[in-house]
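If your schedule permits, I should be very grateful for your opinion on a structural question. Thank you for your consideration; the sequence and its tokens are set out here:

===
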Amino acid sequence: MKSESSRSERVSVEARGETEKSHELARLSAAQIAELPKHDAVVVQPIGSVEQHGPHLPVITDAYIAGSLVLGSLRLLGDDGPPVWVLPTLNYGRSIEHVGFVGTVTLSTDTLLSVCRDVGRSVAAMGFRRLLFVNGHGGNVALLDVVARDIRSETGLLVFRIMPSHFGLPEDVHCPDAEFGAHADFVETSVMLALDASMVHLESAQPGGQSAERLFGKGRAQAPIPTAWLTRDLSHNGVIGDPREASAAVGKRVVEAWQRQLVTCYREIARFEFGGEQ
């Protein structure tokens, strides 16, 4: 019975993997891409960062979460879902707030703007009409909002930007550091435990950055007078939050909720047109 159960689990994992691969644009040949129906197709560009995440999380956390959420969401599309094509994850982001902490590899603002513009140009040149950036790093948000409009203006693409953490949490999830958690915190650590616990060193988890509450406010980054902050302004250990109570069970509920939300977004984006377009 045990071997039969293991075999079923292995087959299930293999099937999930094949579903994900079938949506990866880079696995197709140029000839295959040329034949794809493109009018309602959504091209997804996951993007994150390589930066310190305290003493307990890997530096690839943001990029890993973005890519994993996108690939996992593809299994929920169903046969009636829109055509969704995923580009390889852009691992590097704009992480200048974490400079000075070991493990951070950041692109400059100008470099990342150029990279994203080039991605947009390339997607448009292939004949697609819709580009979605799924972002896992808070430091990329303002830049992506700017470059999305640049790409729209230059190429005519419909461009969208989503950060899954902005979807919020399931109602049954209690977040103990909700007032100040923002980086390597309870939620992010729980999500990583659910996605790949082998990369998480929970025994090394430490709280940090409690003073961020007065900066972020209850709505996270909704302070009435925003200020440019660096992580070292808020935390000595690179953590902004309290990850010590994180759990894979909580992370699993969050991941599943965010993936369902992503599928809803794919469907809405595939149908979206501006009022003046035919």
Notes: The domain at 37-271 is CATH 3.40.50.10310 (Rossmann fold). The chain has a mean pLDDT of 92. The longest strand covers residues 42-47.
